[in-house]
């Protein structure tokens, strides 16, 4: 096949409740929906997951859209390929810019799975020679709350809905007492924290307090580009560390494993440049017996469908950061928003490709965008 044209639809969705981390405070989620069309007449969807500002990773919506238009599109001229993996390899000549590459690559996985008349979940499972699961238990990542009471209420609400694991965002030492309080109130909860790089090693005493709370893991306590200090920290704590912001590809995971910087990886297909790289990381983690689980980036239904396909691989046993659509948005871009089923489970789409369709409103908006010819 050959990619013939691409169009980009920037979308801003209001968040039901603001999402505050040590890096950002989001009231809306801006993404870009990417539609890729091939010479065979197939078309696929991807989602550009960069944030509006370079607080979580260096890419932004604006830089990544420009990267697609000015660097990725020209690379696709006359590029013939049969498998999405070949496209991934082809795009690897572009340094970094993982989310821009992932958006286009995901759309190609979508249309490739459609061409096989299989769900994306089935295609990914086939790559690893396993069977995809149809329903998967998921968790919630809760942004920083104005008070401990509001936090406790939120946790109770999500537990009542059935969510299987809670992640608390912490923005520094001040919130450790709050985590202690939560643990007291919910002694058996599958609980973890994500510091989004808010700590330094000088705050070891505070991190030792977290270590006493029987947390499933501590995500990204230290600086985004640091593996050595994470290794020092991991040596001094019983709780597993998990890396998120450090990981842009397989080499970073290998660095973390070799230096013993962490015992778990939060895997986000957008952050590592797409599903091909994701599968390589999954296989590596399996071989190294390091925990790998599916993270999230407040995706709309399109990105969420890709995450669910990935998370359907049986190796993902830890409940991911993939909540139901109504935990984020009152109006999603897809026709059938993802709903939580019994036991805090989401159902993996089983239609061909990503298995989601844009609503009439977003189909209309997409149709108004001009195609960029390849
Ligand atoms: O650090 O995992 C993170 C959202 C945006 C940016 C970074 C992170 C997150 C989350 C949200 O934790 C997870 C979700 O999508 O529900
Ligand atoms: Mg994180």
From TrEMBL:
SMART domains: MR_MLE. Gene3D superfamilies: Enolase-like C-terminal domain, Enolase-like, N-terminal domain. Its EC number is 4.2.1.113. Coiled coil: none annotated. Keywords: Lyase, Magnesium, Metal-binding. The keyword Zinc does not apply. The keyword Signal does not apply. It is an enzyme of class 4 (lyase). One of its GO terms (biological process) is menaquinone biosynthetic process. Residues 148-240 form the Mandelate racemase/muconate lactonizing enzyme C-terminal domain. CDD domains: NAAAR. One of its GO terms (molecular function) is racemase and epimerase activity. Pfam families: MR_MLE_C (PF13378), MR_MLE_N (PF02746). Its cofactor is a divalent metal cation. NCBIfam families: menC_lowGC_arch (TIGR01928). This is o-succinylbenzoate synthase.
């Amino acid at each position: 096949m050959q990619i013939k044209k691409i169009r980009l639809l920037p979308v801003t969705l209001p968040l039901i409740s603001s999402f505050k981390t040590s890096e950002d405070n989001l009231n809306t989620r801006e993404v870009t929906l990417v539609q890729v069309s091939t010479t065979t007449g197939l078309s696929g969807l991807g989602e550009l997951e960069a944030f509006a500002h370079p607080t979580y990773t260096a890419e932004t919506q604006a830089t990544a859209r420009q990267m697609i238009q000015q660097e990725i599109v020209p690379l696709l001229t006359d590029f013939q390929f049969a498998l999405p993996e070949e496209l991934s390899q082809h795009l690897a000549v572009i340094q970094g810019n993982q989310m821009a590459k992932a958006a286009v690559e995901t759309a190609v996985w979508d249309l490739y799975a459609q061409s096989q008349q299989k769900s994306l979940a089935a295609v990914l499972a086939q790559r690893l020679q396993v069977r995809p699961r149809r329903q998967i238990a998921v968790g919630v990542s809760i942004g920083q709350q104005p008070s401990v009471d509001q936090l406790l209420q939120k946790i109770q609400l999500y537990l009542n809905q059935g969510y299987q694991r809670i992640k608390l965002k912490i923005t520094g030492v001040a919130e450790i007492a709050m985590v202690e309080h939560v643990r007291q109130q919910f002694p058996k909860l599958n609980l973890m924290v994500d510091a989004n790089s808010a700590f330094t090693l000088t705050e070891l005493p505070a991190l030792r307090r977290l270590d006493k709370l029987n947390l499933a893991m501590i995500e990204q306590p230290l600086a985004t580009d640091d593996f050595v200090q994470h290794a020092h920290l991991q040596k001094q704590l019983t709780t597993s560390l998990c890396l998120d912001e450090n990981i842009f590809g397989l080499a970073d995971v290998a660095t973390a494993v070799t230096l013993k910087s962490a015992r778990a990886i939060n895997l986000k297909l957008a952050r590592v440049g797409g599903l091909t790289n994701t599968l390589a990381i999954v296989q590596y983690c399996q071989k190294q017996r390091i925990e790998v689980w599916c993270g999230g980036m407040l995706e709309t239904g399109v990105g969420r469908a890709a995450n669910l396909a990935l998370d359907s691989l049986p190796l993902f046993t830890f409940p991911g950061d993939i909540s139901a659509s109504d935990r984020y948005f009152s109006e999603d871009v897809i026709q059938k928003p993802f709903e939580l089923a019994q036991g805090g489970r989401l159902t993996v789409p089983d239609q061909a490709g990503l298995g989601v369709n844009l609503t009439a409103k977003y189909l209309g908006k997409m149709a108004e965008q001009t195609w960029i010819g390849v």
